Amino acid sequence: MPRHLTALAVCLALLGGASTSSEAAGSGAAITLDQALATYERGDLAGAERQFRALSQQGLALGDYNLAMMHLRAEVPKPDPKLARRLLVRAAGRGLVRAELALGQFHEQGEDGQRDLVQAQSWYLKAAEHGSVDAQVAVATAFYLGRGAGKDFPRAALWYREAAKGGDVGAQYLIASMYESGLGVDRDLRLARYWYDIAARNGDEAAPYKLKAVDAALAADAGSV
């Protein structure tokens, strides 16, 4: 299964002690997200599937999302990518940004056998607008490469800048390079230096070398005045 699909445990851990509950089919017992997570973590996939389905039927977006992930990770007896997509669409409709991102990945990877970069970009854009840094990088890259959208360097720069602000190191380096070259933005060596410096501080290995080059260019510009 593609590594980009988020693990169930990570997703549910975000909720901490969420109190939302449902009754498992036929059991009459209230099921909470924490209990569903515990069931999954102890390896009872059949039980986890039942519990996530119950939470999904209760109207919980994370019930939809995690049931979809189990299908996409082939952790159910009869994995169904089309059902997974429907569940993700419903979770996205219920306001789960993570589901919008997952739908972008779903279409980009062709999980249902039909790769659709236009649909992928559409879902990535929704998630990006709702604050997903991973989606912002995906949207920027699509505009940069013309993949699933027409090439649009100004829009690529806009979304790389947003992702850079959100802490993505690769985006910090890329927006610096765009300012350095004037691709999609007005050329601005000071802003290039600003973002190369941040990328370097955050561990990008190439950024320190670019930082030195930009410093030299700025010094040369100052000396020519």
List the helices and strands and how they pair.
Elements (H helix, E strand, L loop, with lengths): L7 H6 L7 E3 L6 E3 H9 L3 H13 L3 H12 L8 H13 L3 H13 L7 H13 L3 H13 L7 H13 L3 H13 L7 H13 L5 H18 L1
Antiparallel strand pairs: 1-2
What does this structure look like?
The chain has 225 residues and is mostly helical. It folds into 2 domains: 130 residues, Serine Threonine Protein Phosphatase 5, Tetratricopeptide repeat (Alpha Horseshoe), CATH 1.25.40; 73 residues, no CATH class. 66% of the residues lie in helices and 3% in strands. It is built from 12 helices and 2 strands; from the N terminus they run αββααααααααααα. The chain has a two-stranded antiparallel sheet with strand order 1-2. Helix 3 packs antiparallel against helix 4, helix 6 packs antiparallel against helix 7 and helix 10 runs antiparallel to helix 11.
For the residues shown, what is the average pLDDT? Answer: 89
> What is the CA–CA distance across the termini?
58 Å
Spans with pLDDT under 50 lasting ≥5 residues? 1-19, 24-28
The number of helical segments is 12
Give the overall form: elongated
CATH topology of the largest domain: Serine Threonine Protein Phosphatase 5, Tetratricopeptide repeat
Q: Mind telling me the C-alpha Rg? A: 22 Å
- Fourth-tier CATH superfamily name of the largest domain: Tetratricopeptide repeat domain
Beta-strand content estimate = under 5%
Largest sheet: 2 strands, antiparallel
Widest β-sheet, arrangement of strands:
1-2
CATH top level of the largest domain is Mainly Alpha
- SSE class: mainly alpha
Number of domains: 2
Order of helices and strands: HEEHHHHHHHHHHH
CATH architecture of the largest domain: Alpha Horseshoe
